[in-house]
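Inverse folding, one chain.
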């Protein structure tokens, strides 16, 4: 039970990577709050040990403040919510840019700002906590075609992660990011199905993975459990690529 006694909050926990990480952390003994903007997706947690659910729109700062204020002080925050836009800089619109930066970056800023006071108050004010942000291999790590807005926003997540880590490294707070490659999730399936030729689109996604296949959500969860646990106590400000070799 590597996370016994810890309390965690996960955003976008209704499906995909978020759900896999909720289940993995709960299985390791954490009390996990699974949040999502879609309440129907949270119904699947009924009866799952160590998991409680809360509806949360991370684009609503007041809702974040209200939800976090109603929880016990957290040991772990996993900012998983995000969105992928397709296209080059010439395809990008201001509305798409604003939405991506609001969801992929600003929401993480708001979530961290909300949970930090409670983390800093732990251990008689010495602080304790692990913040894990969802970045991507498509970021400052690697440029990918037709991912201008997404890659730029995820590069901002890398900068946000390092800035928070630098500010609180001496106060018991760790902040790291994970950078997955292409993961076979419901959101990816939606994007694939939006192409004129979904079968070829899936082949194209697979072709850019050196391992010759897409990742599964449960294959991303172990690094999140590690970063949530005391095993990673000396790691902060790092970006952990789980990308099937894309950045070799």
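Residues assigned per position:
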């Amino acid at each position: 039970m590597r996370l016994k006694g810890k309390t965690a909050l996960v955003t976008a926990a209704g499906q995909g990577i978020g759900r896999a990480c909720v289940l993995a952390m709960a299985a390791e003994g954490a009390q996990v709050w699974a949040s999502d903007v879609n309440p129907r997706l949270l119904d699947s947690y009924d009866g799952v040990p160590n998991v409680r659910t809360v509806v949360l729109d991370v684009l609503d700062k007041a809702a974040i403040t209200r939800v976090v204020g109603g929880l016990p002080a957290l040991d772990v925050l996993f900012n998983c919510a995000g969105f992928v836009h397709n296209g080059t800089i010439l395809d990008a619109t201001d509305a798409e840019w604003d939405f991506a930066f609001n969801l992929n970056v600003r929401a993480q800023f708001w979530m961290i700002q909300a949970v930090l006071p409670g983390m800093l108050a732990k251990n008689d004010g010495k602080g304790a906590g692990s913040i894990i942000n969802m970045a991507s291999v498509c970021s400052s790590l690697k440029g990918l075609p037709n991912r201008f807005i997404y890659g730029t926003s995820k590069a901002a997540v890398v900068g946000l992660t390092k800035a928070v880590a630098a500010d609180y490294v001496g106060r018991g707070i760790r902040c790291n990011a994970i950078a997955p490659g292409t993961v076979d999730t419901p959101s990816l399936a939606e994007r694939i199905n939006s192409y004129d030729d979904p079968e070829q689109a899936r082949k194209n996604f697979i072709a850019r993975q050196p391992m010759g296949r897409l990742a599964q959500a449960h294959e991303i969860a172990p690094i999140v459990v590690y970063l949530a646990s005391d095993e990673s106590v000396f790691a902060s400000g790092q970006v952990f690529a789980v990308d099937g070799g894309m950045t070799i």
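The domain at 7-182+216-242 is CATH 3.40.50.720 (Rossmann fold). The chain has a mean pLDDT of 97.
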